[in-house]
Amino acid sequence: MNPTFPRLATTPVDFAASPIHALLVGPWHLHGFDVAINDVAEKKSWNVIDTMRQATEFLDDSSTPPELILLAQPSPGEYVQEEVDRLQSLAPLARIVIVAGTWCEGEIRTGRPPSGVLRMYWYDFAPWWAAALRRRSEGLCPPWSMPLDSAHAGRCVTEPVAGKVGIHGTIAVSAGDYSVFAAIAAALPSYGLSARWVRPGDALDPAPEFRGGIWDGGQLDAREYRELRDFCQKMEYHRGLVVALLDFPRVEHAQRARLAGAQAVFGKPYVVAEVAGAFGRPGLICEPGSEVEKQFLSKSAL
């Protein structure tokens, strides 16, 4: 066993600029997991290990413990508590994050998933990571360094950002149920955004100039697909980002939402700060015909 143990820092460290060391464990090549980390630039420097046994051997020989250990979990029971505890003992300062696949839905209610970890679904990872980087860039504690003090620990990683990153404007919210719109409309002002209700099938008034749109749906059946496509087509005039909110989306649902014109997909229950943060990402709202727009339109995102 490598006896090396991290020494106490004697000089200030710029954590916002320092690299994030992570270890990927499991079948990250499977569709869904590969989509989750598709746009994560940092992954280029991360080590990828196929099995837990190989991961323990790697950590046993490593002199640089990772900051994060990301476990791809395609099905319930993939990882047992003893394996997770073994990883934690070899990298005591690392936070273990289980990124669960579609077949793991309901595991918390009916199974016994490992404790002492952060847990999210594959479609949660991309917005979670973007929000975590924003927080880290502001010199704040990243979510993986926060206490595991609640069922949603590590997910609510951003505070209202109005005035911080320049998010402002009106969001068109397409929802068949007014109460859904009201809940979103009540939450957005904390992030510098206002909302206007657009019922499915309604015309989209060219004024005000919408910064983007939020479409609320279920699991994207044929009717909902047509409604989302229609909403995205109406939003083309405003050249704004369209976010689709779906019930426990699978990979094929995210693909169909992209085909309909949505640029981002969130599963319910979602974190409002992450949804609002999508409208503040650099390059998403850009001038027509610009290089930024061309890169954005050709980029595959959730």
Question: What does the model show?
Answer:
With 302 residues, the chain is an alpha/beta fold. The protein has two domains: 124 residues, Response regulator (Rossmann fold, 3-Layer(aba) Sandwich); 130 residues, Rossmann fold (3-Layer(aba) Sandwich). It is 31% helix and 18% strand. The protein has ten helices and ten strands. The strands form two sheets. A five-stranded parallel β-sheet has the order 2-1-3-4-5. Helix 2 packs parallel to helix 3, helix 5 packs across helix 9 and helix 7 packs across helix 8. The longest helix is centred in the middle third of the chain and has 16 residues. It is elongated.
In spatial order, strands of the major sheet run 2-1-3-4-5
Mean pLDDT: 81
Tally of contiguous helical segments: 10
CATH topology name of the largest domain: Rossmann fold
Name the CATH architecture of the largest domain.
Answer: 3-Layer(aba) Sandwich
Percentage of β-strand residues: 15-25%
CATH-assigned homologous superfamily of the largest domain: Response regulator
How does the overall form come out from the CA principal axes? elongated
Question: What does the main sheet amount to?
Answer: 5 strands, parallel
Task: Give the arrangement of secondary structure elements.
Elements: E1 22-25, H1 33-36, E2 47-49, H2 52-61, E3 68-73, H3 81-90, E4 95-100, H4 107-110, E5 118-121, H5 122-137, E6 169-174, H6 178-187, E7 193-198, E8 210-216, H7 222-235, E9 241-247, H8 251-260, E10 264-268, H9 272-278, H10 291-298
Parallel strand pairs: 1-2, 1-3, 3-4, 4-5, 6-7, 6-8, 8-9, 9-10
Helix pairs in contact: 2-3, 5-9, 7-8
